[in-house]
């Protein structure tokens, strides 16, 4: 298989022929890539393109961003709206699944398009790029009329695709709502296009009247380049705490050593590991999903390898809009050994499994 090797990418790659011209895909795969592109968006920034090793067929960066013919094969159980956004969307731009928080989806574009994205059917060719002015007003009115909403989560698309001016306007409008105390921003931009995170952008995230948190999506330690780390530092130095979210992906981070390095890298960047998501049932993503059992084994391995600062919650977003639940390994079970009556009822013992697999009784003595 021969590919061109021109690696000088100066603008975002969006077409299959661009990927081929820059040595990221073989010319023989053009027909399949065009089929994928007709359905799902492609975007690889120059920063991300420079991270891809075109000589490695199993490159973990390429697996996240380069389209594949595997995406054309939907599996049973996969669905266009795998986590049930639509079922919990009372007005355009709002998802209200939990009583105290809502998602506000202002934009439907991203700096890059992940091949495993659970909203892949909602972005891309012939899709809307942003919430309309009237729909945005309606979404803000919805938040104002629901005093139980304590937190607003800006997602999309990627909210850092907004200009700093527009982002500051939105943050100010949210902060002016008395019951909104926290605004959380979900983004991939610091690792996908770190130059976009300017001092002006960081300043736009801050506001009086509410607290901003920023959740960074990264899945492999190579994504946390020097430039990405500087972008994150710019955000944290502006007084904005950061957490991480990652997706457990086959061939990307489904081994303990990679997850260990990734979680430590987050903490080194002053980013608290938050969520490790099990892959959602988005169409054409089966080749990137692991099993729940594999994820549980990895989380047990992490428990013994890294400090508590580095431990994310392994979570499954239940299909149909029923919310996230932790699905990590269970370390606690009731023992069969129940002995006698105590002052407050039966005396119970529990089996506790440590990170090495050893089993212990608690309390040690009844």
Structure description:
- This protein has 366 residues and is α/β, with parallel strands linked by helices.
- The chain has helices spanning 16-21, 30-39, 46-49, 60-65, 133-144, 164-175, 189-192, 199-205, 226-237, 256-268, 292-305; strands at residues 94-98, 101-105, 151-155, 182-187, 211-217, 242-247, 271-277, 313-317, 324-326, 332-334, 341-342, 345-346, 350-353, 359-362.
- The strands form three sheets. A nine-stranded mixed β-sheet has the order 1-2-3-4-5-6-7-8-9.
Our Rg estimate from Cα atoms comes to: 22 Å
Fraction of residues in H or I helices: 25-40%
> How far apart lie the N and C ends?
68 Å
Tally of helical segments: 11
Low-confidence stretches: 1-5
Mean pLDDT: 92
How many E-type strands? 14
Query: Which structural class do you get from the secondary structure elements?
Result: alpha/beta
Shape: globular
Main β-sheet, spatial strand arrangement = 1-2-3-4-5-6-7-8-9
Strand content: 15-25%
Biggest sheet details: 9 strands, mixed
Task: Sketch the topology as an H/E string, one letter per element.
Answer: HHHHEEHEHEHHEHEHEHEEEEEEE
Quick rundown:
This protein is α/β, with parallel strands linked by helices and 366 residues long.
Defining traits:
366 residues; three-stranded antiparallel beta sheet; alpha/beta; 14 strands
Chart the SSEs and their pairings.
Blueprint: H1 16-21, H2 30-39, H3 46-49, H4 60-65, E1 94-98, E2 101-105, H5 133-144, E3 151-155, H6 164-175, E4 182-187, H7 189-192, H8 199-205, E5 211-217, H9 226-237, E6 242-247, H10 256-268, E7 271-277, H11 292-305, E8 313-317, E9 324-326, E10 332-334, E11 341-342, E12 345-346, E13 350-353, E14 359-362
Parallel strand pairs: 2-3, 3-4, 4-5, 5-6, 6-7, 7-8
Antiparallel strand pairs: 1-2, 8-9, 10-13, 11-12, 13-14
Helix pairs in contact: 6-8
């Amino acid at each position: 298989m021969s590919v061109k090797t021109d690696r000088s990418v100066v603008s975002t790659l969006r077409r299959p022929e661009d990927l081929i011209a820059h040595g990221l895909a073989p010319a023989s795969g053009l027909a399949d890539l065009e089929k994928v592109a007709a359905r799902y968006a492609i975007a690889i920034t120059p920063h991300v393109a420079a991270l891809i090793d075109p000589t490695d067929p199993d490159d973990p960066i390429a697996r996240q961003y380069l389209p594949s013919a595997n995406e054309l094969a939907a599996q049973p159980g996969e669905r266009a709206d795998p986590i049930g956004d639509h079922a919990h969307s009372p007005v355009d731009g709002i998802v209200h699944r939990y009583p105290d928080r809502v998602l506000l989806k202002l934009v439907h574009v991203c700096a890059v398009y992940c091949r495993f994205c659970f909203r892949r059917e909602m972005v891309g060719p012939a899709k809307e790029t942003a919430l309309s002015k009237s729909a945005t007003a309606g979404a803000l009115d919805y938040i104002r009329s629901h005093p139980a909403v304590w937190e607003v989560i800006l997602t999309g698309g990627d909210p850092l695709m907004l200009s700093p001016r527009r982002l500051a306007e939105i943050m100010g409008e949210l902060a002016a709502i008395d019951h909104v105390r926290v605004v959380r921003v979900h983004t991939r931009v610091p690792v996908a296009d770190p130059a976009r995170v300017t001092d002006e952008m960081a300043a736009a995230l801050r506001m009086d009247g509410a607290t901003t948190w920023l959740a960074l999506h990264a899945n492999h330690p190579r994504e946390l380049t020097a430039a990405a780390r500087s972008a994150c530092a710019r955000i944290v130095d502006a007084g904005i705490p950061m957490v991480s979210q990652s997706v457990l992906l086959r061939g990307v981070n489904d081994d303990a050593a990679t997850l260990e390095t990734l979680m430590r890298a987050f903490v080194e960047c002053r980013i608290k590991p938050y969520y490790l998501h099990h892959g959602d049932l988005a169409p054409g993503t089966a080749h990137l999903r692991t099993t729940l059992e594999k994820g549980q084994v990895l989380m047990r391995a992490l428990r013994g390898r890294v400090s508590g600062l580095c431990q994310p919650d392994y979570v499954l977003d239940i299909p149909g809009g029923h919310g996230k639940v932790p699905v990590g390994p269970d370390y606690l079970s009731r023992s069969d050994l129940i002995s006698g009556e105590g002052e407050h009822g039966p005396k119970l013992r529990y089996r506790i499994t440590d990170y090495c697999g050893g089993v212990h009784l608690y309390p040690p003595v009844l």
